[in-house]
Write a structure and sequence with these properties.
The protein is of the alpha/beta class and 176 residues long. The chain has a single domain, classed as 3-Layer(aba) Sandwich (Rossmann fold). The chain is built from 7 helices and 5 strands, in the order E-H-E-H-H-E-H-E-H-H-E-H. A 5-stranded parallel β-sheet has the order 2-3-1-4-5, sandwiched between helices. Helix 3 crosses helix 4. It is globular and about 45 Å long.
């Protein structure tokens, strides 16, 4: 683990972008969101990438973005929910920074994202069932790369940010 970089993993709606921006401000680091970077580079939305290239095409772009972003120093990176599906991305995340898994119950995630039309994996008749399936499929992968696991269900963003800064500083002290 390289002190200074923070990589946030977790399902859609877990708060990676919101918490990431807050951590970057507090720790005076640069913030990146891999999904936003992919959209910026392609000039189109993620749902359109899924429509044109399918999930496999999007995952290839995601793996490339994670490779480039994790090579940087002094950043907070909010990864896409599926970034951990790639073994190469998992290896890069664990080697280049502190990985924080923002965990939330699928029911809480559903409440946060149910009106968001920018979630191609939830564009079906049963989005809550899909979130439950994604959680079951990916939870072990998130935990496998995580240096810290944080439940985002109950606490507010400011409180979560303070707690995370303290836990990260302790983690970096132990690894120094």
């Amino acid at each position: 683990m390289k002190p200074g970089n923070i990589f946030l993993v977790g399902l859609m709606g877990a708060g990676k972008t919101t918490v990431g921006r807050l951590l970057a401000r507090r720790l005076k680091l640069r913030f990146f969101d891999s999904d936003h970077e992919i959209e910026r580079r392609c000039g189109v939305s993620i749902p359109l990438i899924f429509e044109i290239e399918g999930e496999a095409g999007f995952r290839a772009r995601e793996e490339q973005a994670v490779a480039e972003l994790t090579a940087m120093d002094g950043i907070v990176l909010a990864t896409g929910g599926g970034a951990v599906l790639s073994a190469d991305s998992r290896r890069r995340l664990t080697a280049r920074g502190a990985v924080v898994y923002l965990n939330a119950r699928p029911e809480d995630l559903y409440e946060r994202v149910r009106h968001d039309r920018n979630r191609p994996l939830l564009a079906n008749a049963e989005p809550l069932a899909r979130l439950r399936a994604l959680h079951a499929e990916r939870d072990a992968l998130y935990r496998g790369v995580a240096d810290l696991v944080v439940d985002t269900g109950a606490q507010g963003v400011q409180s979560l940010g303070r707690d995370l800064v303290e836990r990260l500083e302790e983690l970096w002290k132990r690894s120094a």
